[in-house]
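User: Last request for today: this protein with D-xylitol-5-phosphate, please.
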Amino acid sequence: TASVLNADLSKWKEWLPLLEKARVERIQFDIMDGKFVQNTGVPKNVVKELRPHTKIFFESHLMVEKPEENVREFAQMGSQLLIFHVEATAKPKQMIHMIKDAGMKAGIAVNNKTPVEKIFPFLSESDLALVMGVDAGFGGQKFSHAALDKVSDLRKEIDSQGLSCEIEIDGGVNADTARKCVKAGADILVAGTFIFGHKNGIAEAVRELRND
Ligand code: DX5
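Assistant: Here's the final one, the structure of the complex with D-xylitol-5-phosphate:
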């Protein structure tokens, strides 16, 4: 999954074909309200702007205090999966149902300092569980290795419950941490800075992440 938080959004006509050529399977749009996290993130209409230009799977990561206010709009803009933070709602089950009723897959995220057990009760209804490798809000941060334990605990819980919920890891993912995350049980890697900031370009960055 390529996170476009730190991409030059004015140059999407250049990098979108490169993501497709590199067989990147998902694009993640980091949506922020400046309250849940102290940053503004990707303008939400970028989802709508890019939608007609690619078949790549779109997921939107809501780092906002009121995720329930954003559901319909993201479905209409063409987001196929919507991720909300367990810390941002008192009613995660209702959020999951709202997202599915709007026709999207549902993802639940756990921030860096939140125990991963917090999302265990919701895994059976979620299509994806997102473990943050950094404190949500900014790209380019250093991976917190405690996230590896959360990924493996989540892997054990999902396997013991016999669930199909996918594990995605997000924040500080690079060629080195990617391997550790996969070994810990992650199914999907999100990378922003590593992909868009790689000195040898997008294709090489993706190859390194895939350990091709
Ligand atoms: C941080 C975002 C991450 C970020 C990617 O709140 O959720 O997706 O854009 O992080 P890096 O740049 O570390 O891959």
